[in-house]
Amino acid sequence: MLDRNPRQQFWMNDHMDQAVTQWINSFAGISPMLDRIMIMITQFGVPLLILAIVLQWWSGGASKTHVRHACIVAGLSFLIGLGVNQIILLFVHRIRPYDAGITHLIIDRSADWSFPSDHATATFAIVAAFLLCGLWRRGIAFLVVALLVCLSRIYVGTHYITDILGGAATAIVSAAVINIAYRQDSKLDRWITGLL
């Protein structure tokens, strides 16, 4: 169990966060089938979403270069968002809800701090990138997957809802910065989108 320090005490006073987290987690353990589904979503949701993005590289029809540009923005947002999370984890040491007695865990314990959620950052980076690039149908489809993954992280007992919101915020900011910094039709973009 990770030791508590004064920085962690800030989180312990948020009753709404705890109440919503407990409510979502309260469904865990009631239905073995639902537990298995949520565990599968929490374990395989991010890899399957990454695979979906990789497959987007060869789709798009007439807008192939635009879709490829969105894939690059998604990949960069994903990496930058997770990098920012690692910096946040150096300063914010929030214990996991199962260590605080808020949830009961139905998967293996995590070795790092709770805030922000890497799963939320990874999935919402992809969603934000596609939406910012104007690919609405794909973005909404990815959003459904992202919401399921994030819900599963609370359901299995490993995150608070504010961990999810923090991870999503990191992802959206990262995607916005990359969308501004990495311009479509730049020389670099034309070279990368022309590969394969």
From TrEMBL:
InterPro entries: PAP2/HPO, PAP2/HPO_sf. Its EC number is 3.6.1.27. One of its GO terms (molecular function) is undecaprenyl-diphosphatase activity. Keywords: Hydrolase, Membrane, Transmembrane, Transmembrane helix. SUPFAM superfamilies: Acid phosphatase/Vanadium-dependent haloperoxidase (SSF48317). Pfam families: PAP2 (PF01569). SMART domains: acidPPc. The chain crosses the membrane at residues 37-58, 70-93, 113-133, 140-158, 164-182. This is Undecaprenyl-diphosphatase. It comes from Rhizobium paranaense. The lineage of its organism: Bacteria, Pseudomonadati, Pseudomonadota, Alphaproteobacteria, Hyphomicrobiales.
